[in-house]
Amino acid sequence: MANLVSPMAHLHNPHAFSPPPPPPPPTTSSLSLPKTLTPRAQRSKSNHPPPQPNFSIPSKDQWNLQKRVKEAIEVLDMMHAQGLPPDRTLFCILLKMCSENLDFSSGLLIHDKIRVLDLETDIMVANKLMDFYAKCGRLLLARRLFNKMREKNTVSWTTLISAYYQSGQPHRALKLFDEMKRVKALPNVFTYTVAFNACSKVGDLERGRKLHRELIEQELESDEFIGSALIDMYGKCRSIDDALKVFDEMKEPSLVACTAMIDSYNLNGKGKEAMALIRRILSSGLSLEAIKELGFSCMIRACSHEMALKQGQEIHAQLIKTGFDSDVRVLDSLIDMYRNCGKMDIALYIFDGLLVRNVNLWCRVIMGCVDSGWREKALRLFADMISDGLEPNPSLIISVMRACDCVEEGKGIHGQSIKLGLLRSMEVNLNPEFADMYRRFSASGEAQKLDESH
């Protein structure tokens, strides 16, 4: 390796959080949930400590997003009234802003205007719309848009494949990747990166190696994103030698590649090698921000894998001292560390301070509550997630079923899942799981109906 780390200044974003977005539209379900499952608006505040105020760093752009969207729509109306063609680039910029801030209501306003101007068939606009719905946790709507598209390009396929992976459905992501190749659509480096991530998630080493061979044939293996994804895939599939080979062949491994290698060491029980690589990177002349981000995030994950609570708490204290406790990736790592170390109260303390929470984080926190025996808290958070319009993945629904203490709670989850169309969109048939849940509460009639349905 010529240089250990190439400059990656863009990785540090001090404005990771935004003020609270406007409340989402009410869920379409009219199902009456048990008390434990009522949304947050109908309950008193949680009993764990309030969030630390310095978890949030609002930016002016984020505060003013709704105002800017409204002004942009007014400009578009004026252009339309004067007979000028609609500006698709402006729509794409606005949708990107809404995606980044998870501002669902503003995005809906933009979609309405796109529909009025008959721009849904524009492939660039359609791709941005699909990405917006996926980022906001509305996978069903994203898939519906994809199915309606008369023309699909590589970006269209990659967006939906990534959406399935990000929502915790890696098998479906890989299935769609195979479908993409069957219709002769050409995957790019980003598509392959998501495919490798999905292989990592399901532990499919042989499939990952097959994709790696495809990349070599297409001379794409030297791409920075691909290299990092390969290291991550081999590490998570317990093939540390392959991960190290990819890393050593990089002339200038990026910060992302170094992080993937450190995580691979951690996952494979090589903590000393992980810390040695961290020390090499810390002495490589990176900017202070990049060093802090890499060092803290990787060390937190190392503590998480080793369940080393004391060391993790020391790192957390250092984060607060240096004012670096507002980066979304660092806080995400802290939540996982406390969750894995059995400190769900602290994990929830941090989670409550986040103003932007993606579906994946919601799922991990709720499942952590179930694993920690916090039954009622898990069910309440699940109801909050549903009321925010986010779609849980199959693993979360199975986990929440375990938290049910009576048949009414189980029926509430089952009914809500059916009402929102979640069961149709998932890669796993959950009817057997719901049948087992009903049998657990001696509701044999309900269980038999589900047994007979598949």
Question: Could you give the topology of this structure?
Answer:
Layout: H1 60-63, H2 65-81, H3 88-100, H4 104-116, H5 123-135, H6 139-148, H7 154-166, H8 170-182, H9 189-202, H10 205-217, H11 224-236, H12 240-248, H13 255-267, H14 271-282, H15 288-306, H16 309-322, H17 328-340, H18 344-353, H19 359-371, H20 375-387, H21 394-403, H22 407-419, H23 422-425, H24 431-440, H25 444-452
What can you tell me about this protein's structure?
This protein has helices at residues 60-63, 65-81, 88-100, 104-116, 123-135, 139-148, 154-166, 170-182, 189-202, 205-217, 224-236, 240-248, 255-267, 271-282, 288-306, 309-322, 328-340, 344-353, 359-371, 375-387, 394-403, 407-419, 422-425, 431-440, 444-452. The protein is mainly α and 454 residues long. It folds into 4 domains: 59-153, no CATH class; 188-284; 288-353, no CATH class; 357-454. Helix 3 packs antiparallel against helix 4 (104-116) and helix 3 (88-100) packs parallel to helix 5. The radius of gyration is 23 Å and the shape is globular. 43% of the residues are buried.
Q: Averaging pLDDT over every residue, what do you get?
A: 81
Q: What does the radius of gyration come to?
A: 23 Å
Helix content: 55-70%
Number of domains: 4
Major sheet description? none
pLDDT < 50 runs, ≥5 residues: 6-38, 41-63
Overall spatial form: globular
Quaternary organization: single chain
Order of helices and strands: HHHHHHHHHHHHHHHHHHHHHHHHH
Query: Termini separation (Å)?
Result: 55 Å
Strand content: under 5%
**Which structural class matches the secondary elements?**
mainly alpha
Number of strands: 0
Number of separate helices: 25
